[in-house]
Amino acid sequence: MSRTGTTTRDRDRGAPRRPSERGGTAPVTPLRDRRRRRGTSTHRRRALQAAAGVLVLGVLAWALWAGPLLSVRSVQVDGASTLPADLVREAAGVPDGTPLLRVDVDAARDAVAELPQVESVTVSRGWPSRVVITLVERTPLAVVGEPGRRSLLDARGVLFDTVTGEPPAGVVPLAVDDPGPDDPATAAALAAIGALPPALREQVTLAAAPDAERITLTLADGTVVQWGGAETSEKKAEVLAALLEEIAEGTLAPAAELDLSVPEAVVLR
Questions:
Q1: In angstroms, rounded to a whole number, what is the distance separating the alpha carbons of residues 206 and 187?
Q2: Residue 37: inside a domain
Q3: Helical H segments across 102-214, by residue range
Q4: % of the chain beyond a pLDDT of 90
Q5: Has residue 89 been placed in a domain?
Q6: Which of 229, 238, 224, 234 shows the shortest CA–CA distance to 261?
Q7: Are residues 127 and 224 in the same domain?
Q8: What pLDDT was estimated at residue 58?
Q9: pLDDT average, residue stretch 230-254
């Protein structure tokens, strides 16, 4: 005990300790190091996220390009009425199981367009598992040739199919020297036939065109219509329909020949 009445222990208890004498403390990380570690962690996380994204995209690309999930299971044919759908599918050449992205729709379209009966066609992908072929068939307007070897023509003069029996209703037998899309006489006769209303067209048993300016139509009752050229065919069709209606009603005497070369000055013989 000292003179002041306190012990050495009491003095030691009241005196502040030096930092070196305090209990063990956690090391302090400088702020700069903490920021550096945080930035490294964020960079790693972003790198992992980017790698995962690339992996997902790769799997998706494989599924679309080569995987079985989005592959052809059916080929749908729309617009075919006379053409068998199986013939169209065979021409398109798209096998089942082909991934949709690998289907060459342009090549399939071109192949189907080669069918003579097809006027126009489109081919598209129908997700997730179809190929859709939409076509427009040629409409027959006239028929050329001898019975048993007849060929159908559309409005453009394209010969696209053959018939062994009677042609479809409204398809007019046509007599021209060189039937085809590049023949002026064929084009003129088809323009005249195409201008006729369907009911009137069915009455025509023969259309003949020695040349583009001498078109004649023979009706079922034997009446011969001198059509002339293809110009103003719409007007000539209207005049012919009106004349036949008057003859049927008895207000106009029948005639063996109707000359419509100039529709404003019709001549009945």
A1: 16
A2: no
A3: 105-113, 184-195, 198-201
A4: 69
A5: yes
A6: 229
A7: no
A8: 54
A9: 96
Tens digit of pLDDT for each residue in 88-132?
Answer: 999 999 999 999 999 999 999 999 999 999 999 999 999 999 999
Q: Nearest Cα to 189, choosing from 138, 148, 147, 225? A: 225
Token pair listed for 258:
């109707």
The secondary element (H helix, E strand) that includes residue 167 is none
Number of domains in the chain: 2
Please report where in the chains the tokens 């027959």 appear, as a residue: 140
Contacts of 227-230 with CB under 8 Å at 24 or more apart are: 227/192, 227/260, 227/261, 228/260, 228/261, 228/262, 229/188, 229/261, 230/187, 230/188, 230/189, 230/191, 230/192
Q: What is the CATH number of the domain that holds 115?
A: 3.10.20.310
pTM of the model: 0.71
Spatial distance between the Cα atoms of 5 and 104, rounded to a whole number of angstroms: 108
**pLDDT tens, 79-88?**
999 999 999 9
Sign of CA dihedral 89, 93, 98, 101: negative
* 194 within some domain: yes
- Give the H/E segment covering residue 218: strand 215-219
Strand order in the sheet with 130-137: 74-78, 130-137, 118-126
Specify if 30 maps to a domain. no
* 229 in the same domain as 159: yes
Rounded Cα gap, residues 161 and 150, in angstroms: 8
Beta-strand (E) ranges in 84-203? 118-126, 130-137, 142-144, 150-153, 159-163, 172-175
